[in-house]
## 1
Amino acid sequence: MDALRSTLHSNSALLANKAKRYDEAQKWAGFAIDSIPKDAKDTDKAKVYFRRAQARVALKDLEEALKDYEQAATLAPEDAAIKSELARTKRTLADSIKREKESYKRFFTS
C-alpha cells in the first residue's frame, strides 16, 4: 500500500510542477518521501527528491533544493538530469550569495 501511495504522491508532484503549482508540488513530493517503502528502488526515491527540488528552485528556496538534489544524486549518481540540475543550482546559489555580499558591502560602505 505504501508503494502505491508513494507513487500517487510522486505523480501528483510531477503534475503540480507541470502546472506551475510549486507549493503543491513541494507538498506532494514531501508526502511521497514520507511514504516511500524501505524496499523501493533508489531510482524511484531519487525521482521524488528531484521533483521536490524542482519545486523548491521555482519557489527560490535554493538551499533546500540543493539538499534535495544532493540526496537525489546520492541515490542515482549516474542520472544526467540530476547532475545537471545539481550543478545549475550550485551555480545559482553561489551567484545569489555573491550578489548578497556585494549588496551588503555597498550598504555598509556608503
## 2
Amino acid sequence: MNDIPTRPAKRGVWLLAVGVAMIVVVGAGFLFYKPDQESSRSTVSEAHVHEFCGHCHAFPPPETFPRSAWRHEVEQGYGFFELYAPPLHPPPIEAVVKYFQDRAPRKLPPAEIERATNPLPVRFDPITFPGPPDLDIPIISNVNLVHLYDDRRLDVLATDMAHGLVMVLQPYAAKPTWKVLARLKDPDHPDEEGHPAHTQVVDLDGDGIKDILVADLGSFTPTDDRVGRVVWLRGERDGTFTPFTLLKGVGRVADVEAADFRGVGKLDLVVGVFGLQKEGEIRYMENQSPDRDHPKFESRILDDRHGTIHVPVCDLHGDGRKDFVALISQEHETVVAFLNDGKGNFHKETIYTAPHPAYGSSGIEVVDLNGDGLLDVLYTNGDVLDKPYLLKPYHSVQWLENPGKGQFPWVHHPLTPMYGVHRAVAADLCGDGRMDIAAVCFLPEIGFANRAELKPDAFIVLQQTAPGRFARHALETASCDHVTCAAGDIFGTGRMDVVVGNFGPGKDAPPITI
C-alpha cells in the first residue's frame, strides 16, 4: 500500500487496498436480473455483447477468466447494469453467459516466468524487530522510509490498517523499538479505530517541525459510506503529534500528497478518494490557512472516477511546476498525468490504460527507470482476491516509459509476470548505477490454501542488467503476505536495503522485515 485500497466494484470479493484485507461478499448480480425462459433460450450477436459489456469500461476478453467463472461475472455485470441503469437494451443474460463460456479456456494458463541464470551480485539477509506490545497480528498497509528525527538517517514509518496505528522505528538505534505516534479514532464513534492507508512526512504549517499526513480509509470493510478522512498529525516541539481532520465526509481515502502547486509558499493537497462503487474522486485542496492554528483548505474535484489508489507528486516536464500522476483502478484501470499550469489548474493526459477491466491495478511509483533524465512510471497489477480466487497470468510488474517531448500515452513494457503483485519500488540495489526493482505480493492463505505447495514468489528483485533489460531473482517464496515495501540505505552503509511490510501473516509476527 501504500500501498493498497479496495478493488470491489467489478466483482464479489473486495480487496481493501493500500493496506489490503479480504472480505467475502455475495456477488449479487442475479438479485437484480432474472431472465425468463424465452430469454434463457435466446442467442445473441457478438456485436450486441461487445456493445453491452463494453459500454461503461473496456470489453472483458473471454480469456481473462476460466469457463467456470463466467456465470458469476456476467450475473454481477447485470447487477451493476440495474444499479447504474445506462441507456442500453441488455441482451438475454443466458445468451451472454454462453457467449463467454464458449470462448473461455477451461482454466487459466500458468504465468510464463523467466528467471535469472546468474546469481544476484548482492546478498539480502532478513532482520526483524518485534512489534508494539498490543499488536498481536500486524496488518501493515504502508511503509515509508522518512527523515522524521534525523535528516541523515532513515526512519521506518508504518501504518497498521486494522488497529489504526501510525508508528515509527529507528533501526539505527542501539535497541530499536516501535513507537506508536498516533492511534487514529473514528471521530463519530470514538470507540472504533481508524484505518490508515498511507502517510507522508511534511511541514504543512511551515513552523520547522515535521508533521505527518495520513490517508484514512475510515472503514476496514468496503463501503460507499462517506467515512474517509485526511488527518494532519501536527508535530509539536516535545515530539508528540496532535491530530487535526482536514477533510471528512468523503469516500474511503487511499492516498494524500502535499506540494506547493501554486508557487506561493504554502503546501496544497491532492487526495485520492478510492471510495467503492458510487463514491470516489480525486480532490485538490488549496491551502488558504491564515495561520498555523487555523488550517483552512478549499476543496474541489479534479476527477470524479472512483478507485484511485496512488497520487504521487512529481515534475513531469522539468519546468519547476508540481504535477502528479494518478492510478485509477476498479473498472477504469488507467494511469493519468495531471499537468499543472503553475496556478493549481490541471490538464489531464492518459499515460496508460489497461486492456480490460479485470486487470487488477495495485500500485505505481514515479521514477527514472532507464536513466535518460525523464520520469517514468513503475506499475503493478496484482489484485487476485476477487472470487473465485485465481492465479492470473496477466498480473505483472510493468514499466511505462516516458517518450519525452510531451507525448502521451507512454510506451508500455511488461517486465515480468507475478501472481498477486501489490507493490514495486525502484532503487540501485546492486550498486552498479542502474535502477533495479523490488516487488512483493499478496496471496493470503485464506484464499490460496495451496500456496505452500505451489511456492509462488513472494518477494523478488529485478536486476537491471542493461538499460531496459531485467533478470528476475526470487528472495522469498510461499509467504505471500505483503502489500507494501520501500527501499533505501537504512543503516548508512552505502548499500540499499528493502523494507517489506507484513499483512496478516499470523500471531506475533513482526510488522516488517528488512
## 3
Amino acid sequence: MNTKATHRTEGIVLKTLNYSDSDLIVTFYTRDFGKLTAIAKGARKSKKRFVNVLEPFCCSSLLFFRKQRDQLAWLESCQCINEYPEIRKSLDRTLLASYFIDLVDHFSLEEKAEIKLFKLLYTFLSLIEEGDTSERLLRFFEIRHLKITGYAPALDRCLICNAPLNSQQRYVFSITHGGLHCLSCSSASAAPGVLPISVGTIRTLQLGTEIETDKMKRILFSGQTARESKSLLTLFIGHILGKELKSMKVLDEVQRMRI
C-alpha cells in the first residue's frame, strides 16, 4: 500500500522549474521542514490553482503530501501570505531579493529545518519590500546567514595567537581560515588569501549579527566599512561555495553601472 502523509507549513519560493507541459517543480524554504522541493500538478496551465503564489519570494501557507516511495513532495494547496508586490516593481529590490533566496538555496540541505533561517529570510524580504536596498541590509543579511548556517567568520580574536580583538591592533582576514589574523601573526604565517580589515569594520559586522532589525538603520556604513565588508563577505562566501553566485554577480554589475 502506497500511503501518504499530509503536512502544513509556511514556505517562501526559492525557485521553480518546468517539469512538463502542465507541471512545475517548486523549491521552497519552509518554516518547519527547511528546504522542500515539491511538484505542483497543473500549475503551468490552471487558471484556478496556484495562481500568483509560485513566483519567487512569495510566502504562502502550504499543504503538501508525500507518498512513501516518492522523493518529491506533492503540493496540494497554496494560500498566499505575502507576495511582496513592491519588490517586483523595482529592479534594485528584485535583484537584492533574488540574491537572498539564491544564497539560502545554495547553503541549505533538503529538508533540514532551521526556523531561524526562515525568519531571517522573511524579515529581510519584508525590509526590501519597505524600500531598504542599502549596503548595510545586504551585508547584515550575509553575516547573519553565515552565523545561522554554521559558517560564521571568527571576528572576536586572532585565530593564530588567540588574543582577543584589540582596537589598538591591526588585522587581516584570512579567507581560507575564515577569521582574523593580527598583523604580526599574519606576517609569520604567510597565509594566502588575506584581506586588510579595520577594527571599525569588524565591530560593525559583529553588531550586524546582534542588533534588532528595527534598529539597523541607526548603523552607518562608512565608505571604508562598505568596501571592506563587501570584499570579505563576497570572497568568503565564494570560498565556501566554491563559486560566485550568478545573482551576486548580476547585482554587483548593476551597482557598478550606477556608480
